[in-house]
Every structure is written in structure tokens, then in C-alpha cells.
Predict the structure.
Amino acid sequence: MESEDRQPRNTEATGVDSAHALLAEVGTHLGATRAHLRSQSWQWMLVWALVCLGAGVSAATSAGGLYWAVGAPLGILATAIVSYRIESAAPVRRKGWPYWTIGAGIGLGNTAASFLLPDEVTVVVVWVVFGLGFAGFSALERVSEGVAVFLSLAVIAAIGGAVLDDTFAWYQTLGFIFAGVIAGLALWIRSTPSR
Amino acid sequence: MTDHPSARLDDTIHQRVRLGILAVLAEADAADFGYLKQRLDLTDGNLSRHLQVLEDAGHVEIEKGFEGKRPKTWIHATRQGRKAFSEHLVALQQLIDMATQRRE
């Protein structure tokens, strides 16, 4: 402790200034790399905005019940193609498995719900699972606004499902809401400068 | 044994370019040579030299390969490199906090 106290003030100031400068520089590199990685995500997000839009539109038709049997696999296929394209061109990358794990969780959660729960409950669970899943994706992208928005949507979906009589109409409304929110977030990410 | 944060600074990474390399690799799981060169504004030789120091210390791994016909070099931070980087940042922050407290 004595030696610390004897340390000349100007030496200490230089060390602290240098520490400040290093931390500031580290922050710049972290931020720029994060923005660079995030700047590509809007592509697969738009795919899922379209899938959700399709759910909202098809809910009014006789094909509504079967929509996910086609929409979800097409969305997954499109996501795989977009991700492969992004990964081969990008100079920086993250591990893909956390994204695919969340995607599989969404798929399994909704499939299990459709087998185990009555239809009027399943149509609400779909959006609760989607909300939680997209909150997870947003967390991986370090977009805290996205985490807050999707967790709120999951809660709103659950509350609406519990209090509203017509859960099928609620399902359709949520389809449009999710499509709008995901598309909005995708466009916001796209417009955020990456450097 | 001293508890001063400066004693916990890692000499290998307490260098702005090497700290910058680890910052990029802390955010991304892998970065290619060209990205690091551009991000850190370095020449090929200079970046190679710093990467060699980090690789020798076990902080990064360098993977050379091809993408199509073009050679591509990917750099990953090792678990040890990530740990050293985060501990280094904590030590730097503690150093600043300690000096700020003394001034007050």
C-alpha cells in the first residue's frame, strides 16, 4: 500500500488516461463488430415477417389450420439459404447453433402444443412461443429493444388469449402484429450503420 | 502478494492492437484476416506479427483455408484468450475506479 501511495501523481494520471483510451478503443471495436454482425440479420427477419403475415392472412381462410405445415418449413428453408449466403460472404461470424437451437425450440414447442392442447389454446400458444423465441434471437443479436418488445408481445398474447373469447380472431390479429413488428425491427436494423 | 489491479494486467494483451484484435474476437466467434486488418488499420505484416504473439500465448487460433479458389484466414479467440481479455478489461476498469476514488 505504501508504494501505491508514493506513486507519482503524473505517472498515475498517465496510466489512468491510457486505461481510459484503451477501454474507449475496445468499446469502439466491440460496437462496430456487433453492428457489422447485426447488419445482416434483417434478411432472415424479413423471411419470418412474411411467414407471420401469411399466418394472419390464412387465418381467415379454410387453409388457416394447415398453414404452419407449409409456412414453417418454407421459412426454415429460406432461413437456411439466407444464413448460408450471409456466412459465406461475411468477414466476421458467430456460431450458428444457438440460433438453430432457438428455432428448433419454437418448432418443437408449437408442434407439441398443436398435439397436446385444444385448438383455441394452441392458436394463442403459437404467438407466446414466437414472442419468447424472437426475444431469444434478439438477445443473441444484443438488441435489448427487441428483447423487451418480444417479451412484451408474448405476455400480451398470453393475457389476450386468457381474457378474450374469440382466440381465433386474436390469433389472426397477433399474426399481423408480429409481421409488422419483425418487419419494423428488420428495417431498423438494416438502416443502422454498421461502421 | 499485491492486490493492485495493475498486477493483473496481462503484458501480452496490454497493447492497443492486440487488445483490439481480442475485442473483435470477443464479439464475433471468428473474424477473417482482411476484416481485422481493415478494422484495426494495419498492414498485413503488422497484423501477422501481432497475431503470432497472441497465438504463441495461446489466446487465438489461426485457421487457414480456401473459400472457392481464394485463400482465407480465419482467426478465433480461444477460451483462454476470452478469459484473459475480460479479466484485462476488469483490471483496467478497477485501475480507473481506484484513481477516481483517490482524487475525490
